[in-house]
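Why do we bother with holo predictions? Because pocket geometry can differ from the apo form. Keep that in mind while you read this record for zinc ion.
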Amino acid sequence: MAACAVFLAVAVAGGVVTALPATAAAPTVNATAKTAATTKIPTTVNPLPSVDAIGDPANFSVLVNKSRPLNPASYAPSDLVNARGSGQYMRAEAAAWLNGLFQGAADAGTGGLSIVSGYRSYATQSQVYWGYVNAYGQAYADTISARPGYSEHQTGLAMDIGNAAGSCGLSTCFGDTVAGKWVAANAHKYGFIVRYPNGYTGTTGYSYEPWHLRYVGVALATDMNRRGFPTMEHYFAGNTAAGASIKSGADLVAADSSGRLLRYPATAAGGYAGAVQIGSGWTGLKQAFVVDWDIDGVYDLLAQWNNGVLGVYRGLPGGGFANQVVVGNGGWERMTITVGKWTHAHGRPGVVGYFPDGVLRYYPNTFGGALSAPQIIGKGWNGMELTIADWEGDGANDILARTGSGALINYRGDGWAGFYGPATTVGTGWQYMRVLAPSFGLTGAGTRGITAQTADGNLYNYGLGRSQWTTYRQVGSGWNGLKLFK
Ligand SMILES: [Zn+2]
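The structure, written out:
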């Protein structure tokens, strides 16, 4: 078991550490080439579903916005129910979770929520929209109302809500109420998102609407929250921004022994396409990570070089990567690290790791650039292989640590950079796994898993449910000569 790993309880607050990898300028390592060429390297097997933005209007994860109308435009769901007896309708599953959300808000002492407006048919939306056009003109109407065939309310998955007192119905002041703040912080636990958050009109096309909830399912909502994506457009951007070099969290990225940077795309055709070269000069890696460092919706690369530099290569929407930005300089080759969102206080993914001293430190990525000073979050972690993942599916990332004897231990994160509850063994026999890489969206939007590379070069993917493994299958072979990015 993990008796060797000990946590510092609370005393870490402000406990700054020894001189450790600091930030620096002056990149000193290889930049990536921006040319792409197809290469044949290790084969992959087994089909994988598409992770493209979802267009089926009956799918709970469907993406509907001003450039993606419902298809067909006249779509009407078949399982609408009267939500909470309000006379407003929603699809049955969404309505059931809405009950949970309302109960949760009441239990939290917010004063409760009220229902304002749910399902609207194509015909009804047409009346609403043209009413606004007549009143305000089309330009303004388009910022506050969807055109018929373009409304989330037509999916049966959207519900406008207000505070129970009703004083902020369809008003931005709802976001300032106790109930509105609770909804913004907790809706994902019930499968809902605040679809049009403040400050993202340029992305969503809509003004801030703290009252407009969209049901997307718990898996997708918690995944968006965990990874810090503010909108569905951000979440699917890696797929719709077809030019980006890394298109989704389901893709595999690796460097071969000659330093070629390779992407293995998960395709709609039901497998990985052949490797595509997306860079060169990637020799000298200790480890590398696929991560959206600046949460702009395009995947970036974090490189941990053998020369001690930790650098980020920002993915460009049109393809390729910007030159390296050094986010940590000196000593990083001696660290064992993992990368991910480690506290709700910071939306961007940070770094958790230890030197040979076994002291576990969290380095916040506060600005999407250089790392901030670390805080100590544990000790006795020597010899552990680390992977950040959300084992419970509760929206707070955990650390899965593999011991030298092959036990896989879940150290449950409390969502605030600390740990919660006892560590539990969630796997054994993992000593044959060399690399444990988180994967996202491999078996559908919002799904999560761990892809692990065995010593003999096979790849296996383990699906993650709530405190359990869901699937297990081989997804590749012949990876011996490759450095699989985590
Ligand atoms: Zn609405």
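The chain has seven helices and 29 strands.
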